[in-house]
Design a protein that fits this description.
alpha/beta, Rossmann fold, 2 domains, 4-stranded parallel β-sheet
Length: 269
């Protein structure tokens, strides 16, 4: 569920099957545009589970795209996981039966879900990162950027942003603050942009740093990271860092990356 939430799905755990059609209709008419929804259904659904197959058939009949992924694991692995997390199996609590028997009964009672599944995934040998990658591969279009990247300009005079994953100092570039006609402007002004970007070192930096970002994104994604904040700093956060942040966003956008831009200190001073 966490992986799907990171991918933009609206997730609900343990919704009774009979309520799914109503919820789908609410999503369809939502002003938020809830087009991607993930619902977890398991043995906790009890008597509602028998309605699940008809619910899915009805949803598909009216044109909704539905995909069922069934996660399973070997008995000994399930028993070990319950022991490690110190959580009780739902049937163990409800019926007062030993854990091994609860696991066996669960497998039998939800066997019909396995039969109608589009994908069956054995998680026995998967760690959390491997499971996340597998779910993403099965549900998302290949090549879609999953990580949310934020480019944040700031001024060292006001401190380094605590949320930054990567911090880059661009104080090596000429400072417009010392140019009288540029001092009162910001990095969003064309005159300031032209002053900085006409420098060969600025263009060279953007090119090389963009390559580094493109190299790092899939590596961070592989490790399960969903958000990446790259902070670009200059002295006051008003000129150089703003220009470079905007230029990086432009270049990354041209290369198919979706980025969010924030200027923390641009309006200070």
């Amino acid at each position: 569920m966490k992986a799907l939430e990171d991918a933009g799905f609206y997730c609900i755990d343990n919704m009774p099957a009979t309520l799914i059609p109503t919820f789908v209709e609410l999503c369809r008419h939502s002003t938020r545009g809830l087009s991607k929804v993930a619902i977890v259904v398991d043995i906790r659904g009890k008597e509602f589970l028998e309605d699940f197959q008809k619910v899915i058939q009805d949803l598909r009949h009216v044109g909704h795209q539905v995909k069922i992924i069934f996660l399973e694991s070997k008995d000994d692995v399930l028993i070990r996981r319950y022991s490690e997390t110190r959580r009780r199996h739902p049937l163990e609590k409800e019926r007062g039966i030993p854990l091994p028997e609860a696991v066996k009964k669960e497998r039998g009672e939800i066997a019909f879900l396995r039969e109608i599944a589009d994908e069956v995934v054995d998680t026995s040998s998967l760690n959390v990162h491997q499971l996340r990658d597998l779910i993403m591969e099965r549900l998302l279009v290949p090549g879609v950027q999953r990580m949310k990247v934020t480019l944040l300009s700031f001024g060292y005079s006001y401190g380094v942003p605590t949320e930054a994953d990567i911090v880059m100092d661009v104080r090596f570039l000429p400072n417009p603050f010392f140019v009288k006609e540029l001092r009162g402007l910001t990095g969003e002004d064309k005159k300031v942009k032209d002053y900085i970007l006409k420098k060969e070192e600025a263009d060279d930096f953007v090119h090389k740093f963009t390559k580094l970002i493109e190299y790092l994104i899939p590596l961070y994604e592989k490790e399960g990271k969903s958000y990446l904040t790259i902070a670009i700093g200059c002295t006051g956060g008003k000129h150089r860092s703003v220009v470079i942040t905007e230029r990086l966003a432009e270049v990354l956008g041209q290369r198919g990356k979706e980025v969010t831009v924030r200027h923390r200190d641009m309006e200070r001073g």
